[in-house]
Amino acid sequence: MEKFKVNLPLKAWAEEDKPREKLIMKGRQALSEAELIAILISTGNRNETSVELSKRIMVSVQNNLNELSRLSLNDLMKFDGIGKAKAICILAALEIGRRRKETVFRKKEKIISSQQAYLYLKQMLSDLPHEEFWVILLDRSNQIIKRAMISRGGVSGTVVDSKIIFKSAIETLASSMILGHNHPSGNTKPSEQDIQITRKIKEAGKTMEIPVIDHLIVCENGYYSFADEGTL
Fold first, then answer.
1. Most CB atoms closer than 10 Å: which of 9, 12, 203, 219?
2. How far apart are CA 36 and CA 30, in angstroms?
3. Which CATH architecture is the domain 110-225 placed in?
4. Residue 17, Cα to own-chain centre: how many angstroms?
5. Are the beta carbons of 34 and 55 closer than 8 angstroms?
C-alpha cells in the first residue's frame, strides 16, 4: 500500500513546536530563521504550514539571511502563499534588522581604518542589487558627522555629482570625507570610471580644503580601499 505524507496543520502541532508558543516557552533565540519568518507570515498555503513555507523560502536562498534581504517584493510574491502584505512584513523585518546593525556602528566615535569604514558602509551597501554611492563626512578627529547617499543607479553603475557631495560637506562643516560605493557583482576591482571619479572628487576636495581620505568599493565578502592600495 502506498504511503502518503501527512501534513498536519500548525494548530495540531505540540505547543513547544509552534513558533509563537516556542518563543514564549524557550525564548526568541531558540527559533530558527524559518520559524521567525513563519511568525511574520502567520499562515501558509493549502499544502504547507507557515513553517514549511518559510523553510522553503530559506532553502531558496541557501538559508542565508543576507541573500534573503536581496529579494524584492515581487521575488517573495512568487512563493505560493506569499501575497503583498506578507512580503512587505518580511522586507520590513529585514530592514529593521539592518538598521539595528547600523545603529551599533553609529556609536563608534571615530573611523581610523579602511576596515572600520568598510564595516560601517557594508550595513547599507552589501546586499543591494543595484549600485549606490555614499559619502561619510568626518570632523577633525575623524568622528562621523553624517553619512549621505549621493546617488542610486543600476546594476553596473551610478552617476555621481561632486557638487552634491561638497554641498553636504560644507553644510555640515566637515573636515574630511570617505567615499564609498558597492559593486553588486561582488568584484572589488575598481573600474576606469571609479578611478576617474575618485581623482575628480579628490582634486575638488583639495580646492575646497575638504580632503578625500579614502574611497571604498564595498562587496559582501570584501572591499577595495583606494588609500590602502596607494591609488588615491
1. 219
2. 10
3. 3-Layer(aba) Sandwich (3.40)
4. 31
5. yes
